[in-house]
Design goal:
The protein contains 12 helices and 12 strands.
Amino acid sequence: MSSGTSAQGPRLRPTLDGIPTYKPGKPAGADAYKLSSNENPNDPLPGVLEAAIAAAGSFNRYPDMGVSELTAELAARFGVPAEHIATGTGSVGVAQSLVLATAGPGDEVIFAWRSFEAYPIITQVAGATPVPVPITAGGDHDLDAMLAAITPNTRLIFVCNPNNPTGNVIHRAELERFIDAVPADVLVVVDEAYIEFIRDPEVPNGIDLYRDRPNVCVLRTFSKAYGLAGLRVGFAIAHEPVANALRKTAVPFGVSQLAQDAAVASLRSEQALLERVEALVGERDRVVAGLRAQGWEIPDSQANFVWLWLGDRSADFAVACAEAGVIVRPFPEGVRVSIGETEGRPAPRSAPGRSRAARGGTPGSWTRRRCG
């Protein structure tokens, strides 16, 4: 060891000691249902695999850093300027860029809790202070309490609609009232990762809220309904100052060419998407009805999962489910169970052995018979 060199190694930021590591859904073995990650259990949409294979032939080249084709496709789809779109590595990657663009040491980021697990993590990574506001007993955002939590240091507010992991939604009137009460210099991020699964007509489309509100940003992802979780591509729609800041804070070349081409092909396979989402929604509603018939108190989920209020029994329930061949996602407050395929569907050729549900058997019935 050379003179003057410390044996303790490089000095890292002390704040990292208090930041939890993001916990993904637990993987499943060959003989288990994986209902822990809110993935779409279906194969890629028609044309997507072919687009991905074609893109794989150019792995030796950097991707289109501007993600121009996907940006143009999204701009046309949603009727927004291309300059209002910013892409990233899933909606969580874009969310992290939003925090980096708005908040640092001494600044605050507000979100409901429990909500998406990444919110406090990406806030602390930026050096900002997370301000979790407890959800109501029914699993809803407490919007009045979130407004009361705003201080001169507040820079960003995450609103997860539908909320992950409870599946609850915020209706149009209450969300508009909330947004319009937030100071104009505070960014409100409406996280709509599960918007395709919403069937409640009173839930607004965040893009409608963004159009005449410069402090509103909408987050979307291709990981859920579109089934591209493994490719990591998401996007934000926001007014140009915010979208431009996102491009500055994004990881260069973060969205691969394969991911971009697959996302474009997915957008162009809309009819198949609608059919698959409708099938998952139908299965969600069937599972909710079945669980309620057994006496479970289940929130009205508008996402591709259901929530079980189990409190301190959550970890034991998850262990019992794993022993029965069902992998679920426990939290301190409850357990989230993703909606899988219905009985008789063939196994996805892209992921053999990863979803027992794909080879036969109904996730709802397994939860009933072997975990509850």
